[in-house]
Amino acid sequence: MAWTKYQIFLAGLMIITGSINTLATKWADDSESKGRDGKVKKFNHPFLQAVSMFFGEFLCFLAYKLMFHYYMRRNENDEEKLPYSIKGNRKFNPFIFMIPALCDMTATSVMYIGLNMTSSSSFQMLRGALIIFTGLFSIIFLKRRLRLYHWVGMFLVTGGLVIVGLSDMLAKKTGESGESNSIIGDVLIMLAQIVVATQMIVEEKYVSGSNVSPLQAVGWEGIFGFITLSLLLVPMYFIKVGGKMFETNPNGQIEDAIDGFYQIFNSWEVASGISGTIMSIAFFNFAGISVTKQLSATTRTVLDSVRTIIIWVFSLAIGEEYFSLYKLGGFFVLLIGMAIYNNVFNGLCSNNTETLIITDDAEGEEADGAHSQDIIS
């Protein structure tokens, strides 16, 4: 069946905003600006960046409220005519999103630390480790039985991750992701997927049955994540740990948000990167939710792979990294593994597929708030 113009628009919006999200965050990381200590340095504030990401998710909550009141007035208070992204139960305890938000907060912060150490393409590819951990956790905690194609997909994804990591280890050129700390960044990104997998399992077990609007669910996680991490920035300012990872903060703190704001206001490049992160995550969540409903979760997985290609090509074009056959091979192994795991090849020919669809939101990516429709036993 041919796609409508609106569906093509949604697919394009998802690919573009998803790509911008990672590239904008990395753009801020690589930009130099004067901090509160008067020194010009790169923007190394992963926790402050995570706060901005959650603020972007909070914008989804505002969008939900505006859309809800608009469509209710338009449809004469008939909730049955509401769009999928805002239709759902409105009588629920918002604190059911607290634990998923804390998981999202932890994973996003760790991944942003890793992104500071490696390339944006490696960052995007290594997030494929989510499939492995979610598959294993679904067996342990949800008592699911994976089919053979799930195991084959997980095996190939593991192989792809090893190859991508190997490409970073072998890269030796200055400025490429293969610098000495890139492996640490790669490991942090993959470890963060354990937390993301935990988030998805918790949402599947305790949240999905509440039938909350996906856009509202993303918004509530954004609210809890934004408030919690903003409060944590205060003690982080006073905890001095030193070390190379935190040497750009004036006193070697875990996070110096004041220094970060100085750098944002002193550089249009940093400000543009942060603004891009905020706006792109909001539109990406909306587009991702809509694609899942209008088309399918399988299509969403395919589009997410296109996003990875765009990020890598752009990174090569601007000279952030150098072309590597190892990374190209690793990406294709990852791509095939994810496609097999998500039953994409069968899903493209049939709408009645039984899959365990995994999406990254993150940038909590994002979560669509209705994982019972994305993760099916």
Automatic annotation (TrEMBL):
Keywords: Membrane, Transmembrane, Transmembrane helix, Transport. It is a multi-pass membrane protein. One of its GO terms (molecular function) is transmembrane transporter activity. The chain crosses the membrane at residues 6-25, 46-72, 92-113, 125-142, 148-171, 222-239, 325-344. GO terms for cellular component: membrane. Its main location: membrane. The keyword Transmembrane applies. SUPFAM superfamilies: Multidrug resistance efflux transporter EmrE. Belongs to the SLC35F solute transporter family. This is Transmembrane protein c2orf18-like protein.
